Amino acid sequence: PSSCKSAILQLWLLTWAAVTVALTASAVGSQATDTATAILQPPPVLVICHERASELRRALHSLLAARGASPHHVLAVQDGTDEDVAAVVRSERIALVQRRRDPVADDPARGQGRTTAKNLGSAASRIARHFYFAIEAAFEHFPAADAIVVTEEDLLFSPDLLEFFAHALQLLRRDQSLWLASAWNENGFSGRVRDAHRVMRTDHFPGLAWLLPRALWAEELRPTWPSGHWDWHLRSLNASRGREVLFPEVPRVYHAGRSGTFTTPQMHERVFSRMVLHQDPGFAWREADFLAAELAAYDAALMRTTLHGSVHIRHGSELAGPITSLPGAVLVCWHHTNPDPRFAMHSKPLAKRLGIWSELQRGARDGVHDLRIGLARLLLVNLFDPAKISERSSRTKAVWFRGMQRRTKWATFRPRAARVFTSARELAYEIDDGTFCTVDRSGRPEVDSCYA
User: Fold this and answer.
1) pLDDT tens across 204-250, in order?
2) E-strand spans in 30-183?
3) How large is the average pLDDT for residues 95-120?
4) Three-state secondary structure readout of 50-70
5) Inter-helix orientation angle 53-64/83-91, to 10°
6) Which residues does residue 310 pair with via DSSP β-bridges, in sequence order?
7) How is the chain split among helix, strand and coil, in percent rounded to 5?
8) First CA to last CA across the chain, in angstroms?
9) Spatial CB neighbours of 38, under 8 Å, sequence gap ≥ 6
10) Which residue numbers are catalytic?
């Protein structure tokens, strides 16, 4: 009968549909597995070195202890031919490329035992040339790699460093608003970071250990590589084109070098020694950690934070009060502070109190610093508008406004009743003396950091 044939046909169609769905699901699952496997394949690592053999040995031991690391996926590029450095590289069975230095172009003249501005300029030029040479050598050495991790000889690394970069590379491919990823949080000081799973965004290039895609190098950075201060160049809008850098809240790299061309032992003690390095060997990144860092999701989360459930600080003394002991509390400080270093007197008092960089662009995104204070989360939202500075000032010092070419878009989310501090200095002055200090690496208060 026709009804029986119809029922058989329907049953056959349902069976075929079920088989098709199962096959599709299997293919998707297989593809997802392949993708997951690909994500876990870390990009190769470039180690840029010069003549610090003991620091290089420490850095290589730390790097090779990271999960997924292999000597065959590491290339050391040496500035010069120091034999002690070369011996360290070879002892780790790592490939070595040496750049023979130009005695005229590469060696800055030393004046009266002092490091002069001219000398620093020459050193910056030498370093920029070596970075260019090293990056070219790395992409030639790893022809199949679509990205490399750029590191230096005076760094230490987290066990999950390469896994972070493997996941970050996938996100850079999907999110066109990103262009680089770094393992360093410029404000990753003790007491200012907590969530090891959180991935953040900044418009200020952090450096230290960073992910460089091959296409970006070939199409944009290689043709425009500067003759000096390559890191400043990567912080310019001409280079970034408004794109952002991915980084972990808790740093996965630590600056261990106590001295260098632009680093002194005093600076190391004051800044780098207070930085956190994530060292949990059992930590594992989750895909959700990076999905939350995609542009739309990241902005939506910040919008919910600034609009709902946050406490808008009305007096600086609140930051020294019990509210910072509330787990999950979100505190928002709106301020109006010129980021130009010529007016650093407005930002240094608060930076000293919080124990962060006094250069307001470092670690910020669109004028917003996202930090930890006690058990709470602190958002410092800078409402400064570069468009209102004089044309002459803008012309002469535009470089210092790098990522702040306009007023932050988050200004529109400020409640009318929320106070705007006239500067970061005003906020610092209102924090009670002696009740708010930064802490050293052991967690003890640093008395000198308490504002007097």
Assistant:
1) 999 899 999 999 999 999 999 999 889 999 998 889 999 999 999 99
2) 45-49, 74-79, 95-99, 147-152, 155-157, 178-182
3) 57
4) CCCHHHHHHHHHHHHCCCCCC
5) 20
6) 330
7) 45, 15, 40
8) 97
9) 170
10) 231
